[in-house]
Amino acid sequence: MICNKTNNSKIDFVVMGSEESCAINDFGYRTLIFANALSRSECVGKVLLINCPVSLPKRVVNNFQRKRRVEDMYPIVLKRALGTVVKVNEELYMLNLSSIFPESDNIFSKIDSELHAGNISRILKDLKFENFVLWIATPRMVDVASSIPSKIKIFDAIDDMLAHPQMARFYKRIKKAYDWVENNADLICIAAEGQRRMFRKSSSLFLMPNGVDSIFLRSGTNEMPIDMKDVPMPIVGYIGVLQDRLDIPLVEAAASILHDYNFVFVGPVKDYSYFKPLTKYRNVRFLGRKRYAEIPAYIRSFDVCIIPHKVNEFTDSMDPLKIYEYLACGKPIVSTPVAGTERFKGYIALAQGPTGFADAIKQAFLTDTVKSSEARRSLAPQYSWDNIIMDLVKKIELKFKEKK
Hints:
Elements lengths: L10 E8 L1 H5 L5 H11 L3 E8 L2 E2 H9 L11 E5 L2 E5 L4 E8 L7 H20 L5 E5 L5 H4 L6 E6 L13 H14 L2 E4 L14 E3 L6 H4 L17 E5 L8 H10 L4 E5 L17 E5 L6 H6 L3 E4 L13 H8 L4 E3 L12 E3 L3 H14 L2 H10 L5 H19 L1
């Protein structure tokens, strides 16, 4: 297919399962990045991004605290009792949902799901979404998605949520969702090889690892962010959500061994108590959440980028987005041997244990060259979201033909 915005073969997408907070805080999240990339693609028509519902009590608290809203950022296109549609750009719309009840695993959750399915179906008609692909990006939205008629249903298995410690209380609901996906999805996109175990019975798996967004591929200035200017070299950096996937004892030992290196963590902190052991080190800094457009500048200010993740069942289902971002910025990378790193032998140094990890960081800093930096940069474009979407559209076209 020759893709362009004017031919009749373009495909509309309804993407379910982003987080409203990510859109508000301008945070890089696979589903949000993917939806934006879809809206830029010449193979795609309109895109509706549906965020996971926020409970009405939570909205009342947010309004009382005068927190920023998506409705204040973009023009409103449609407004319903439990949903508001805004227009992000010429091709991308965003639907923010409100739930009557807080998220649960009981009859109230089922009631909310039925209300949302009916509301979304009416909104899709109003926006003239007819022959669309339904993209489901979280098991939390499967109950709703299962009731929405669409030509093709695709599930994006970003991580194995059954192995996520913070999702333990929703285990039954998530397991039920994965069972539905395995039996009903036309295509299941997996981000890592380790996710094949999640859908052993399905013959419709499509490996779709993460990619790199165009903002990381543009040539940027070497201007260092203001809060990095007083950080002495060498700088060891990490970008991403700071949660319990990070191996704190490993980082603590590396910071202790490399006391003349400065460790910088950029991203929102999920649990401050979990990272408390690192706060006693003078050479460890937490810079907090940054706007997505600022992230390339922070990565370029690092001398070595790290991925100190635990190696367990949960991380085995992941494909770290930061790998592609680090590579696009040309930085040396030191990681524990988590899923996704095996694809980049020669470009990522893998290390285990405190001494091994610290030694790998030091070696990466001392041996990095302009030539090796350019090699990493030149590798990144083949993993662009634009290329990924082109391959995905070809796969979807085959599914459409099978349905005829």
